[in-house]
Every structure is written in structure tokens, then in C-alpha cells.
Design brief:
By secondary structure, the protein is an alpha/beta fold. The chain is built from 12 helices and 8 strands.
Length: about 260
């Protein structure tokens, strides 16, 4: 296994933690709601991506990064600044960016706001092209358990797909008030909302996610591709690292200069 190193920077006055490993073209990973960079490691992505210089970020509010309770700190343009600050720290002029679920929303926003630093984007477990109204309409009905700091309701009503064995660790490392603030911040518009999708773009969604056909319909135009992951729910479309890597690596190879082989 490639050595995994813990690092951190300060962006906008907040600590942003991240992990690095591998050697090759730059690849940035951004994890989803209540996830952390360590989840890419535990799911098995390290050896599958060892021929890239991987940076896996703990977004503000998650993992080892700071967890403020002010929703304004979580606006997507601020999150894009955090990603850019990590790229600067690692001396990446440009990178491929890969996000899952809520991390994919952040990656899409970064690609829209900083296209000159984006070689390509891989978006898993989300619907690309949502505007601020869409984001609010999807997210607002589910925020109450986080506001109430009610873990039982989070698992029952908002995130039932998270495997039971992972839940204790997630409860320890997450602050539900920070998660609620993060959700609200993402509903605000940013200067590059709207317009065509950033390209080149690959989107993949498990067919067990209720929105997979909506995502498929949104991924249109040149230099875009959509791959449904049959019989995968939201958790499996992240945890199945081997299956996901088989989908993603050809796209990575085509746009980053690295071999397209699947491991």
C-alpha cells in the first residue's frame, strides 16, 4: 500500500485537513456528507489510485477540518477557495477532481468557478447542473434531524443507507450543528451557477438511488458521460472501490495523461 500522509492548511481562517498518497498526475478527492478523507482509504481506493498524486480533502465541517456553525462559511464559492488553497499548498496548477455525493457538488462548483485549474471532473452519487433553488428544494426537507442533533432521526430519516457498522465512527467525528450549517450554506447561489456543465465530465450513480435517472437526463452535451452502477445503493456506489475504479480509470487516463488500466 502506498504511504498515506496527514496534512493540513489554513484557508479563510479555518483548518482544512487532507491526506496524500501516490505519485503521478494530480488527482483531488472530495468526500460526501459526513464523510472524511479516511473513508476513501478504508474503502480501498489507495492502491487502486497509487499511480496518481492523490489529495483527499476533508471539506470544512467534516473529518479533521474545522467545524464552524455559521452557514455563510459553507457557501460553495468559499469551499472552492478551500480546494484551491490545497492545490496551491501541493503546487498543483491544475488537477483532475473527483467528488462523491455532497463532495461532487463541491467539485462541480470548483470546476465552474475555476475552470482554468480543472482538467476534468468525476461526479459520483449526485445530480449535476442543479441551481441554488434546486439545491434548497432537495436539501431543506431533510435538515431537521441535524438541527435537532438527533442521531437516531439522521439514520432513520436522512441517511438510512449508511451501513450500521460505520455509524458509531461517524457519530464521533461529526458535529450535527456544523452539518446543518454546511447544508444551508450549499443552498446559496454562487457566481457561476447555471450554464452548461463543466467538461470533460463523468457522472456515475447507483441505480438504487432514487435520482439516478434524473442525473442521467442532466448529463448531456459533448465531453460528458454517464454510467449507471447496477444494483448499487448510495453507500455501495462509494464502498465498491474496485467496481467504481473500473468505471473511473479510463476517464482519468484519457484526461490526466495516466495509464487507463483498471487495477
Amino acid at each position: 500500500m502506498s504511504e498515506v500522509m496527514d496534512k493540513a492548511i489554513t484557508s479563510r481562517g479555518h483548518r482544512i485537513a487532507y491526506l496524500t498518497w501516490g505519485d503521478g498526475p494530480p488527482l483531488v478527492l472530495v468526500s460526501g456528507q459526513m464523510q472524511a478523507a479516511e473513508d476513501w482509504v478504508s474503502a480501498g481506493y489507495v492502491d487502486l489510485l497509487r499511480d496518481y498524486r492523490v489529495v483527499a480533502i476533508d471539506p470544512l465541517g467534516y473529518g479533521g477540518s474545522d467545524k464552524p456553525h455559521d452557514a455563510t462559511t459553507y457557501r460553495l464559492e468559499g469551499r472552492a477557495s478551500d480546494i484551491a488553497a490545497v492545490l496551491d499548498a501541493e503546487a498543483f496548477d491544475t488537477a483532475m477532481l473527483w467528488g462523491y455525493s455532497f463532495g461532487a457538488m463541491q467539485v462541480e462548483a470548483f470546476a465552474r468557478l475555476r475552470p482554468e485549474r480543472t482538467r476534468g471532473v468525476m461526479l459520483g452519487g449526485m445530480v449535476p447542473g442543479l441551481n441554488a433553488v434546486d439545491r434548497r428544494n432537495i436539501g431543506e426537507p431533510g435538515v431537521a434531524p441535524f438541527d435537532d442533533e438527533d442521531w437516531a432521526a439522521v439514520w432513520r430519516d436522512s441517511m438510512p443507507f449508511v451501513p450500521t457498522e460505520l455509524r458509531p465512527a461517524w457519530e464521533v467525528r461529526n458535529d450535527l450543528r456544523a452539518v446543518a450549517a454546511s447544508m444551508r450554506g450549499s443552498w446559496e447561489p454562487h457566481p457561476a451557477d447555471g450554464g452548461p456543465l463543466p467538461t470533460p465530465l463523468l457522472c456515475y450513480v447507483g441505480t438504487g438511488d432514487w435520482f439516478w435517472e434524473i442525473a442521467q437526463a442532466m448529463v448531456v452535451g459533448p465531453s460528458t458521460a454517464f454510467v449507471p452502477l447496477a444494483d448499487h445503493d448510495h453507500a455501495a456506489a462509494f464502498r465498491d472501490a474496485v467496481g467504481v475504479a473500473a468505471v473511473v480509470r479510463p476517464f482519468l487516463g484519457a484526461h490526466s495523461g495516466s495509464p487507463s488500466r483498471a487495477n
